[in-house]
Hints:
This protein is an alpha/beta fold. It has 12 helices and 20 strands. Strand 4 and strand 5 form a beta hairpin.
Amino acid sequence: MGLIVQKFGGSSVADAQRVMNVAKIVTDTYKQGNDVVVVVSAQGDTTDDLIEKAAEINPHAAKREMDQLMAAGEQISISLLAMAIESLGFPVISLLGWQAGFNTNSIYGAARIKNIRQNRLQAELARHNIVVVAGFQGINRYDDLTTLGRGGSDTSAVAIAAALRADRCQIFTDVEGVYTADPRKVKDAKKLKEITYDEMLELATLGAQVLNNRSVEMAKKYGVELEVLSSLNPIPGTIVKEYTKMEKMLIRGVTQDKDVALISILGLKDTPGVAFRIFEKLSTKNINVDIILQSFGRDGTKDIIFTCTKDNGALAVELLENMFDDCKIVSNTNVAKVSIVGAGMESHPGTASKMFEALYDSNINIQMISTSEIKISVIIDADEADRAVSAVHKAFIPND
């Protein structure tokens, strides 16, 4: 007996049949004597559909109004799931994010959770209700609805698990766990039994879509043990925790991310503080910068090249063009980031060369390289991404 937080993504509740399937998973957990809090995303493609509807009316709608609209998807999901659980004869109540006590800051479309008032959640659990909570949303100090950004329901679930000190936080998806690569694209991808927070955080940040990176970051901070498993196939999934039994370096995953814009500032005057000015300006607009490359100065100029997400690319270029009128600003969105992740990589010589050899053998050109203790990332042409992932995966994780 314990407290279990379960999160179900949009594909898990995409239609009536899947909603009933989720209701059975939840009630089976409840019948085992557990208290259960369920966090649900919007059904299927609801969020994308809402974005399209907004674009038909106003392509440049205020982010506050977009949050008002986007929060509707989860409201539909929680009410339908609560009805399904009720039909099975179990006590249940659905709560919107603000009803569940989610207080956020006021960055519309990408809000951060400030705290969770636990009173309502604790009261409903004390009444032995199954509590179904709308993920992805909260309320700010102005009593406005806010959303947490893509993948925000994962973060909602982990935040509840941390606040209530749950025994386990289960993330149900349409895959059976965390794989060494996307199993829909790499046929020899292998499911991992367990993975560390740090490795999972890198994989999530670098394009693996099974978990939101903010949720992993929060789970690590508060020691919430995660389990990633399938809502369609009842088998053990992948445990995400602080330490694993792995004793030697192992590449835990190969990812690709096509949501990349490569921004080049060419012929920039080589003056003290210019890099600070550039990235300070970008930060004021909440533009996250990833890989950065700076050339050696020549003839009093230098080049600075960096990557950001595609949706921030145009804004980054606009800001830079307003800052500089004596250099060339170029944006390339036909690129992808391919990465390998594994703990202990730094202490095992030859890892980088093995990755580069696999790309060379496949005649794939590398444009930029970034490394850390547990990952190596390269920027390549987007058209080569699938082939690159397969080649690198084969080099490090043979089909044995």
